[in-house]
């Protein structure tokens, strides 16, 4: 048994992107795949660790790249500058994450009929927009994601949706939760939402410790949300 890791270059128009791909070679390929969309700082060790963890469970895991090869933020200001073009242009966001889906479908280790996507914070918004775009994925999972709709023409959503949410998240207040519930219902989606009490934004990130900004790690919610993810993937991809 060995974990195979590689960097995969792919493109969205003129933008050169680089994903991190891994799988465990004792499992028979082609494998069900999980795309992982990063938070506002860019593709980092956090999502790569998640990819490795999923690979040990028999998934082909692909930590995608929304910003471009080598582009990472190292401060709040840099992170905001990287994320802003995609928040302001949700059509660009949808195109960029669909480019990652195309790249994953082309990997020989991947069963293109069994793909899901998950994301954290900004990445949660990205995977929700992937589903909103009508992309051919089995399911998407948002961890403390931004829930506001893209303001684009609505599509029927065929992907199953799991939203893992801190109830006290200042970046996704209760009115946003009610709005996305209505949106997903109107789109015909198979959706579920887990809200964790006394929990704010970034609850899966052990380095989050900004109480004033509403970004704090919560070990219990982190553990519960991971269990919910694994159950969802088993139901959706196996």
User: From the helix content, strand content and strand pairing, which structural class follows?
Assistant: alpha/beta
Second-tier CATH architecture: 3-Layer(aba) Sandwich
- Strand order, main sheet: write it out: 1-2-4-3-5-6-7-8
Fraction of helical residues: 25-40%
Task: Give a quick precis of the structure.
The chain has helices spanning 45-56, 76-88, 90-105, 122-132, 174-186, 219-237; strands spanning 3-12, 15-24, 31-37, 60-63, 110-120, 139-143, 160-166, 191-196, 209-210, 215-216. It has 238 residues and is α/β, with parallel strands linked by helices.
Task: Characterise this structure.
The chain is an alpha/beta fold and 238 residues long. It has one domain (3-237): 3-Layer(aba) Sandwich (Rossmann fold). Helix content is 35%, strand content 27%. It has six helices and ten strands; from the N terminus they run βββαβααβαββαβββα. The strands form two sheets. It has an eight-stranded mixed β-sheet, with helices on both faces. A two-stranded antiparallel sheet has the order 9-10. The longest helix has 19 residues, at 219-237. The two termini are 21 Å apart. The mean pLDDT is 97.
List the helices and strands and how they pair.
Elements: E1 3-12, E2 15-24, E3 31-37, H1 45-56, E4 60-63, H2 76-88, H3 90-105, E5 110-120, H4 122-132, E6 139-143, E7 160-166, H5 174-186, E8 191-196, E9 209-210, E10 215-216, H6 219-237
Parallel strand pairs: 3-4, 3-5, 5-6, 6-7, 7-8
Antiparallel strand pairs: 1-2, 2-4, 9-10
